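Let us work through a complete example step by step.
Step 1: write down the sequence.
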Amino acid sequence: MVDRLFTEPRLAELYDALCAGRPDFAFYLPLVMRARSVLDVGCGTGELLIAAKDAGHAGRLVGLDPAPAMLGVARRRTGVEWVRGDLSTVSWQGAFDLVVMTGHAFQVLVEDEELRTALAAVRAALADGGRFVFETRNPLARGWERWTGSETTEASGARVRVDVEVREVTEKRVTFTQTYTSPAWERPEVSWSTLRFLGRAELAAFLAEAGLEVEAQYGDWGREPLSETSPEIITIAR
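Step 2: predict the structure and record it as C-alpha cells.
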C-alpha cells in the first residue's frame, strides 16, 4: 500500500506541523553538521537538511524522496539538492560522508530484496569511513499497541484531527491508517502505511550482508543503551 502522504499535497503540507518538536533532530543534526557531504534518504519535506543549512552547513546536502508532494514542499528552499527517487532508482558512488534515514523511513522497506537493494545502494554511496545512521522501532516494545489519535494545525489555521487505526499485525509488519479530518474540508483524507519491524539480530545480519558494520546502537534519543524495552533501535553503521 502507498502512503497518501506521497501523493496528496494537502497531507504533505501537514507533515511538519504533525512532527513539530520531534526529538530525533537533536540527535541527527550534530552528525549532519560534522559531515562534509550528507545524503538524507526519504527526506520528506527536507526539514533536517534545511535546519543544517540554516545552521551554517557549508558542504553538500542532498535530499532524496520518491514523493512529489513532499519534495514540492522541500523545493521551496534553495541551497540543498532535492532529488526525486529512491535507492532503487538513483545511485551514487563514494559521494557521501554520512547517509541518514530519519522519521522511521527505514521501516517502509518491507520486503527482503527491497531492503537488500537499499542497503547495497547506501554502502555504494558512502565514502571510505562514511557512516549510515538510521532508526527503526524496537518490535519488542510493541509500540503500535499505543498508537492513538492526535490533533495538529493546518497552515491556514484550521484544526485537523488525526486518528490512527491499526489494521493488521503480522510477525514482522504492521499496517495502519491515519484518517485526517477538519471542519474546513469537504471530506476526510486517509493515509495507508505498512511498516516492517526488524529485531536487533536480523537487522545486524542485513547490514553485515551489505558490508556495513554496527558501530553503535541506542535505545532512545538520549543515547540510552539499547534494551528489550527500548522504544527505538538507533543504529550507527560504518
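Step 3: interpret the result. The CA atoms of residues 18 and 63 lie 20 Å apart.
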